[in-house]
Amino acid sequence: MPELALLGGAKSKRKPFPEWPQFDANERRALMEVLESRVWWRTPGTRTLEFEQAFAKVHGARHGVAVTNGTAALEVTIAALGIGHGDEVILPNFTFVATASAVLFANALPVLVDVAPETYCIDPDLVEAAITSRTKAIIAVHMGGHPADLDRLSEIARRHNLSLVEDSSHAHASEWRGRRIGTFGAAGTFSFQSSKLMTAGEGGMIISNDDDFERQARSVHDCGRMPGEWFYSHFIYGSNYRLSEWQGAVLNVQLARLDEQTKRRHQNARVLDKLLCEIPGITPQKIDSRCTRNGQYAYIFHVNSKELAGISTEQFIAAMNAEGIPNQASYPPLHELHMFRNGEYRKRLAGAQASEDHAFLQQKFPHTQRAAWETVWIPQPALLGDEEDMHEIAAALRKIQRCAKEITAQPLAPARAAR
Ligand SMILES: Cc1ncc(COP(=O)(O)O)c(C=O)c1O
Question: Does residue 242 carry a catalytic annotation?
Fold first, then answer.
């Protein structure tokens, strides 16, 4: 009888993982209250406003501006920082496309740099080396919930007079040296898309401690209006990025669960650290000693094919699926995306910047390559389970490691489309 579920054996996971998104009577009540109030629009409403204030407070920020999604949060931030034609913004090659496309949206050039080998967050030395006279900002991404090196990045940003933006789409309530992420630089941006650590299906937030930045961002997100002015005065270029009252109401309730859920995810992930680091060929994302709490959007681990009978990441994922362990694909390196390879991105640029060589596109990015093609992610809802769930995950991965040879003898699972 085969041991692996992939080959007809029994599944390792018997008890179901918690469902996501989570909701109870409080979300139901909040939505009914919005419905019956007939105030569904943010402008005269109170729910989204309350949520902005509460979310900012939880992260130790003075201001919060709620927007339609995490991509919009980056777009509004970049516009509010005055970044545009001819400018450069340094960001990690290993991230979701939105971190780079928001820069292109502002007609500026995203300059991609490699990540640190163990945390998969932007490498501060490479940031410093990529700074030119055109650089205006650095975007750090807190990968999987693990903060980027905020000590080094804030110091570099200060010394070179650059804006630091924290793309915190994975890192609600994460902490660096006991302080919540999001206010180490000019602004922190968040996503409330369905898979994120709290959600209204879609949604986003910008937090900041800078009063001038907040005024600018609020105006950009509301058609160039300014608080206290006539409704039809539009002072700067802006668009409509407002979040509805439905989403504000749901997110207020979701926020009330964030602290307890973050603690649970962080603790369960540390249980997995201990169990998985004993499995040959599997290396969990390193947790820096200065990361005092990881929001843990995902549990990321590296699979060393050489130590696992030459197994491919696709085969490893197929075996995990069969064992009943949820997983999600890692991001491909941004510089390998079609829009960078076929030159489409240049259409967003102007002047010399549109036609000159962009040296970073010729680089090798070894750590991004490894993170993109050789890591596996266990999504956050699984970390809301109990300790027994973590032991079942570890048992499944131990089984895959033990039987890796039987997997590599099978035909290859299809490779990921982006490759
Ligand atoms: C790192 C990162 N930045 C930005 C975004 C964009 O957020 P949204 O999907 O809400 O637009 C995401 C979402 O997946 C993300 O993972």
Answer: yes
Whether residue 411 has pLDDT greater than 90: no
How far is residue 160 CA from its own chain's centroid? 26
Q: Are strands 282-284 and 298-303 parallel, antiparallel or unpaired?
A: antiparallel
- Testing ligand 1's pocket by substitution, the residue of 71, 202, 300, 380 carrying the most ligand atoms inside 8 A of its CB is 71
Domain that holds residue 120: 25-254
* Active-site hit among 196, 266, 367, 370: 196
Atom from ligand 1 closest to the CA of residue 98: 4
Dihedral sign, Cα of residue 15, residue 21, residue 22, residue 24:
negative
Give residue 135's Cα distance to chain centre. Answer: 23
Q: Whose CA is nearest to atom 14 of ligand 1?
A: 96
How distant, in Å, are the alpha carbons of 62, 158, 236, 239, 358 from that of 216? 15, 21, 9, 12, 31
Contacts of 344 (CB under 8 A, 6+ apart): 338
Asked whether residue 400 is assigned to any structural domain, the reply reads: no
pLDDT at 413 over 80: no
Task: Supply 144's token pair.
Answer: 């999987």
pTM beyond 0.85: the answer is: yes
Do the domain assignments include residue 404? no
Number of domains in the chain: 1
Give catalytic status of residue 315 as yes or no: no
Q: What is the pLDDT of residues 61-85, one digit of tens each?
A: 999 999 999 999 999 999 999 999 9
Radius of gyration of the chain (CA): 22
pLDDT surpassing 80 at residue 280:
yes
In 96-228, which ranges are continuous DSSP H helix? 98-105, 124-130, 150-159, 211-221
Give me the helix-helix angle, 245-276 and 47-58, nearest 10°.
30
Please give all residues whose beta carbon lies within 6 A of any atom in ligand 1, as ranges. 69-71, 95-96, 98-99, 141, 167, 169-170, 191, 193, 204
Please give the Cα distance from 183 to 172 (Å, whole number): 12
Collapse the DSSP code of 387 into the 3-class scheme (helix H, G, I; strand E, B; otherwise coil) and give the result.
helix
Q: Is 167 a catalytic residue?
A: yes
Residue 366 is classified by DSSP as: H
Rounded CA separation 231/414 (Å): 55
What is the per-residue pLDDT for 1? 78
In a domain, 369, yes or no: no
Residue 415 has pLDDT above 90, yes or no: no
- Encode pLDDT of 86-110 as tens digits: 999 999 999 999 999 999 999 999 9
The reply to whether 198 falls in a domain is yes
